[in-house]
Task: structure prediction
Amino acid sequence: MADKLNILVTGGAGYLGSTLVPALLAEGHKVTVLDNFLFNQAPLNHVVADPNFTPVRGDARDEAILKPLVKGIDVAIPLAAMVGAPLCDRDKTAAVTVNRDAVGTLCKLLSKSQHLLMPITNSGYGIGQPGKPVTEKDPLKPLSLYGRTKVEAEALALERDNAISFRLATVFGMSPRMRIDLLVNDFVYRAVNDRAVVLFEPHFKRNYVHVRDVARAFIHGIGKFEEMKGQAYNVGLSDANLSKWELCERIQKHLPKFVFMEAPIGEDPDKRDYIISNAKIEGTGFQPKYSLDDGIRELIKGYAMIRNSVYANV
Result:
């Protein structure tokens, strides 16, 4: 496959896409973004001057729109999704049709020579065993509609010989299409603005990864596709398997006036409680560049500018 590729990114104006698309363009690739621009933001304004960038307004579920876009591409990256358990529970039909069925349509349209890089969530693992790192060999046991639709989409993708699946940890960090409802982003926002947070299930552990490292993982997968294809890979920070309580302790080091306490007032709809092993993707030569502390520092700076809950999915 040629060094400079034609890449289709559905949902490319979202939180991850608005970080990934500029990174792909910086690599010299031609990038077409299909997005419905649902959140009335303009997170790709800074790349419109690039002649290799083409935006298309439309629905990733619409085969009539997808079909001509798929012609001539080398790589498809379906980021279009209803992300998170609360959003999926609010619109269950959209969750199934966007998260799973649109991926099925894309798989049907792609030829064997066209590559697919599929993001899902590592919340598909459900509840892990205490102290035992979860690997890609462990069964997927999603406990939410969001988790189930993404796991089903992964199965559709990996039925093909030309796909890689990335099982993403909880993503954090500043992005042109910002989301403050992701756990790290949310806790730092509260620490900056409220100086306090009340925790439920504070000892539930999960893994984390910077949004720019997720973009780097996709670029890594494009470059090492033949070596990595047909498999799933956990993508996260191996030194950041932390409980909510431990996460707050890390934030408190940067914001000493931040107060946090436990109260039995809620539950995680995904029931995420696990330690994740990222050894498999690290074995292919990928290493994250951005630490949890890097992300906390940049979020604190970002929240000096952002004071609006429009930057959330729910």
